[in-house]
Structures are given as structure tokens and as C-alpha cells.
Task: structure prediction
Amino acid sequence: MVLFIRASAPNRASIGATNGIIQLMGGGVRIVGPICGAAIFSYSMHDGRDAWSAYYFFMTIGFLATGTSLFLPRDPCLLENEHK
Result:
């Protein structure tokens, strides 16, 4: 993943800023993710709802993430060469 982040920087001078933005977003996801996951699990267990609905939701998110990753180029160097 670091190769894609490095290749997405518009120039060499902005690699640090690009890295910082990605770290900020990753930290935000690490904060919000468990909260949302616990809320979805709690909602699925409340008042006789289907307990598996939380797992269906998580599987859907996983499949969407996997499908989205298929749009990434096979070689991150190709992305870097497009900026030059």
C-alpha cells in the first residue's frame, strides 16, 4: 500500500504531505470503525432481530473493498510514470 501512496504524490516534494493525509485518514478509520461495528452488532442483537445481519453487513463491506482493490493497477510504478 505504501507504494501506491508514494506513487499518488504529485511530485517528490509533496510525498510527506501525502503520507500525512493518509495517516490522518487511517487514524480516523481506526477510531470510527470499531464504534460503527459495535453499533451495528448491537442493533442486530436488539429486540429479536437477526443476529447474523451484522456479519452480512461486514461481509458486504469486505467484498466491496476487495472489488474496489481490483481497480488498482497491478504495478504501482505505472501510476508513478503517469505523473511525469
About this structure: The chain has a mean pLDDT of 83. The helical segments are 2-8, 15-45, 53-69, 76-82.
